[in-house]
Amino acid sequence: MMDIAAHHMSERKNQYGQAIGPSIPDWSERRRPQRNVIVGRYCRVEPVDVERHAADLFSAYMEAPDSRDWTYLFTERPKSPEQFRIYLEKLAASQDPLHFAFVDTGTGRAVGTAALMRMDPVHGVIEVGNIIFSPRMKRTRVATEAMYQLMCLVFDELGYRRYEWKCDSLNAPSRAAADRYGFTYEGLFRNAVVYKGRSRDTAWFSIIAEEWPRIRTAFQSWLDPHNFESSGRQRRSLRAIRSAER
What we know:
The chain is an alpha+beta fold. The protein has one domain: Gcn5-related N-acetyltransferase (GNAT) (Aminopeptidase, 3-Layer(aba) Sandwich), CATH 3.40.630.30. It is 29% helix and 28% strand. An eight-stranded mixed sheet has the order 3-4-5-6-7-8-10-9, with helices on both faces. The protein has a two-stranded antiparallel sheet with strand order 1-2. Strand 7 (125-133), helix 3 (141-157) and strand 8 form a beta-alpha-beta unit. The radius of gyration is 19 Å and the shape is globular. The protein starts with 11 loop residues before the first strand and ends with a helix. The mean pLDDT is 95.
């Protein structure tokens, strides 16, 4: 894990001899993400729309044999198409979190969702969360490109400084995903949340703007079609590519 203290190694001093942070003379408040479509090679990111996405998403989520993918979410998996439409209507109406659907460009069907949330344009901080990948999306190029596309939006288009990932500290798959995507673990917030009648310690992760160029290059290399054999098997993992580029 990166030494977080190293981020502030070259400290400046003010007139009183006190250590102060780096100067950002041209900083200004950033724009909020909008309901725009992002088109990639494998994934199209679209604002959640009930009429466009409800049937595909419900079908995709129900391919899972049980509801374990929803254990660490604040809601349970809707059990019927009618319940799912009500659930998706709430997502579509929300401004923060701002929910997006991930559409597989090969099939044209929505296969998962995630949200940009806890937006802080004044300080350039935003979180990705409420991530639900259906079985059709897990361990695919669609999933990785979806995360890459949101990062490009946040860092390259909107100019944010910090991109956060938070999860229940017991959510091992989420922690592993954060590590794979290049997030740095920052620590544990104890007794941070009460949900579903239980206590949650929250694990915090982030990517900051200074790290993004290297992480972006690794994503691009991994997503390149030449990184995959004819069977679809990856030639190099995302972690391996990122490590080689240090």
